[in-house]
Every structure is written in structure tokens, then in C-alpha cells.
Amino acid sequence: MGEKGLAGVAPTIVVNIDAVVETPKPEPQRAAEATAAVTAAPATSSDRGGVGDGQKKGVAFFDLDHTIIDTNSSWHWMQHEIHNGRVGAGFFFTALYWFARYAAGFGAGAERAGAEAAELYAGTAEEELQHEVERFFHKELAHRMRPGCAPVMQKHAAAGERCIICTSSWQHPARSAARLFDCETDPADVISSVMEVDAAGMLSGKIAKVAFGDGKYHVTKEWADANDVDLMQCHFYTDSMSDVLLMEKVGFPIAVNPDARLRAHAKERGWEIHDWGIAESQMKKPRYSYGCLNFSGAAAGPG
After folding, report:
1. What is the annotated signal peptide range for this record (predicted)?
2. Domain limits for position 152
3. Residue 132, SS3?
């Protein structure tokens, strides 16, 4: 996917990636504390007709990045692609800008970066990419699940409520995460942005569905209508202000380790704010030095 640098020479760039993007959210709990906080008391949303009551069963939608896991899967995928020499510095710095904006709760316009990434995967076999992403998730992200997430999922499952991934990422990381973190795995029940696949099973480089920002609500509403689900009976867990429209449309919006803008908005609206903690492994992050970056453009990771 990548290309050679100018005059065949790829300059070395040393980037402290974590210092830029992996900025901790306010006052995160340690793993043991977060797990205890979730398991010691029933979900407060049950007082409003949520987990464990006798009303019509709804669905629990879970955002992926910074919600189920304590990091951004797309950023780690980009590190993976850089390490393999498949991401050029031009796209790297463009993506860095959008990741920084997203971390601050300002994600508007990131669709453009997503469209550029989709184009760069044109001609790739979808099955091949899915297998690669699957291996990547198991190796790099299986240990990044927030400790407070699993108990909440278990409560929903015990109440007969479906747990559905609802992410702006591409279908490949979304499906991998659904399998890894015990959400529903049928591709039709994984809500995400979608790269278009042609009749031969190859990625076309076009976007078939955008689940970012307001688009996440529209894609989720489409899924809910097809599955006879009333969004007012549903929970939605997310960290990002970019998901606020969907939060407004469900009966039980929950802000999980939210960005500053969503935290303020949730307090204003009286929404629940949960701290699910961070994985202990985050305390031991490596630093990355890449000699493979080049300035002629290359591919970026999914979503």
C-alpha cells in the first residue's frame, strides 16, 4: 500500500504519539476501583425503566473507542500501518490533526479523512483486510477493555437485552471488536461506517455508509427500524460529544469517561456519567520511533 519516499529515501521521524493523543480523561479510576464501583450497586438507569425491570426489552448500544476500550483503535491501527511502512507522513499528520480534534470533542469534518482513507484501500480484498484487523485486535487491543464495561454488558444480557457495537469505525474493526468484547457478531447487527465492497469482494475505495456524528444516529435508527426496536427503550454508552444526536434520541443516554464538552452537556441535561476506569496496561505504554515514514502519501487504518 505504501510508496517510496523522495529519491527513494525515507526520512526518520521520532514521534511521541502517546503524548499527543493518549491524554488521560479527568480522574480515571484504577481497574479494581472501577470494577467495584460498577458491581457493588445496580445500574441507576434501572430506576428509569432500564436494566432489570419488567418493561419491554430494549437494546444496549456501545461506542467502541474510549468507551468499551480506553483508547482509540484507529490510532493504534495507524501505528501498526506506520510500523509496516504503509503510511506516509502526509497522511499521518493529517490524521494526527483529526485525532487531536476528536480527543478534544471536536470531531466535525473528520469524514473527509475517512473518505481519503477509504480511497487508499481501493483494490484490497475485504476478507484479507478483515483477517488482518482481527489479528491486530487480538494482539494489540484485547487488554484495553475498560474494567467497568463487562459488568454493565453482563447486566444487560441478564435482563435479556441485546448488546450492540455502535461505532463510527469501519466494519472491519467493528466486527473484530464485537467478537472480542462479547457483543452481537452477525454483520447485520454490527453498527458502523461501511467501506463499499464490490461484487468480487474487493474494497472499491468508496464509502457506503457513514456512522460518524449525526450519521451515527441515522445508521442506528435504520437498524432499529429494521429490527422493530424502539430507541426510547434503549441505552447508549459513549464518551464523545460527536454522538450527542443519538444520545438525545435514546431513552437512556450514558456518558462514559466523557470528553470535556460531553461531560458539561451531560451535566446540563442530567444524564448519567460513568467512570469505567482504565486498563492497567495503559500505565505501561511504549514509545514509537519510525524510520518508515515518507512524504509521498500512503494508506491509513480503518475508521
Report:
1. none
2. 6-290
3. helix
24-33, 64-73, 207-216, range with greatest mean pLDDT: 64-73
- Pull the grid cell for residue 83: 510500523
295 within a domain of the structure (yes/no): no
Task: Please count the helices (runs of H) and the strands (runs of E) in the chain.
Answer: 11, 9
Instruction: Tell me the C-alpha distance between 107 and 116, whole Å.
Output: 16
CATH of residue 281's domain is 3.40.50.1000
Q: Is residue 16 classed as helix, strand or coil in its secondary structure?
A: coil
Question: pTM for this structure?
Answer: 0.73
Say if CB 81 and CB 301 are below 8 A apart: yes
From CA 216, how far away is CA 222, in angstroms rounded? Answer: 10
In 3-state terms, what secondary structure has residue 273?
A: strand
For 111-120, write each residue's pLDDT tens digit: 666 677 777 7
Domain count, the chain: 1
Residue 296 is assigned to a structural domain of this protein? no
**C-alpha to C-alpha distances, 44 to 33, 92, 155, 214, 239, nearest whole angstrom:** 18, 42, 12, 27, 18
Contacts of 87 (CB under 8 A, 6+ apart): 2, 78, 81, 293, 298, 299, 300, 301
